[in-house]
Amino acid sequence: MKLPLPLSILAAGRLPQGRFGGALAGQGAVALGEAAVRALLSDPDLPRPTRLCWGMARSHTQGMNPGRTIAVRAGLGHQVVGTTLNMACGSGMGAIFQAAQYLLLGESGPVLAGGSEAMSDNPHLMPNLRWGWRLGHQPLPDVMHQDGLLCPLTGLLMGETVEHLAKAHGITRSQADRYALESHRRAAAADFSAEHLPHPLLDRDECIRPDATLADLEALPPIFTPEGQVSAGNASALSDGAAALLLSREAGPSPLGRILGWTELALDPMEMGAAPIPAVNTLLAECGLRIRDIALWEINEAFAAQVLCCAEALDLPMDRLNSAGGAISLGHPIGASGARIVVALLHRLRQRGGGLGIATLGIGGGLGQAVLVEA
User: Which domains does the chain have, with CATH numbers?
Assistant: First the structure.
């Protein structure tokens, strides 16, 4: 939908993203969120938020309503309402939409939105232990797998649905590996200083592999089926991170950018990876725009094959898509990723002198999101 009035983005940033088991392991998603909020609001010229909307897809061990805990522990005060949204990969972007809705409905604002995920800290579960285990072996389900990567509607892992999508769209392993290599190349060459928020344990994105080669990627075996094309090298990296944005109805002295519109939609869960296609087409139609009007694009790189399917169907210019890499090279901390790609888009637009941009992603279970911003 096209917004009845643009909403200002006063500030936007993210923590450097840690690799799985890396420098941020053991911190927990609440602590990462707190660090991001504190760092973003360290500028004394920024107004204080009246509400916090936060995405987190795997909150096991993080306590009740992590968004509220983050708000209080980050020093926003007991009077600031904090909420948590679990929408899988769309949690962070969904939190932005939720914050925007509060502002459009009259919240005095500003409202802080974002998301965090500590994938390194996802626990294993012990189902049915409450009523006792009398005899025999028992499973210990991995939260990462059961509540994060497995779609209960299809019974398939996300990568398995992308294998289906790649086959239907004729995307080859070679294309996916080459795209993944380019993601690392772009990320290694990018300047993230404007979007990085400081963290005492990490000052760079740990997942980027500047020395990666095509031969390295081609040597990795398929994950899901022997004849498949999704590998550890052309899929998003498991990681830890947090991203945050401060939204307002008021422009302030120098806003970073504006939100002009967004869309959320649902489709067949087997087509999850293709959800950006109808999401983008719907958003463009509602805002009276065409592909050529958009200066830069961010499609969450859950899988290289998925991005390639969407880019081909939408006829996107590849030099304007994920210009500083994406989740393959930077990591995909699930609850934070939707917010991270909006942060990335805003800063890339400003680096090039401004313009319109769209960030979009597909979500497990068959959902799609897209947001139109201006910087």
Answer: 2-121+237-374 (3.40.47.10)
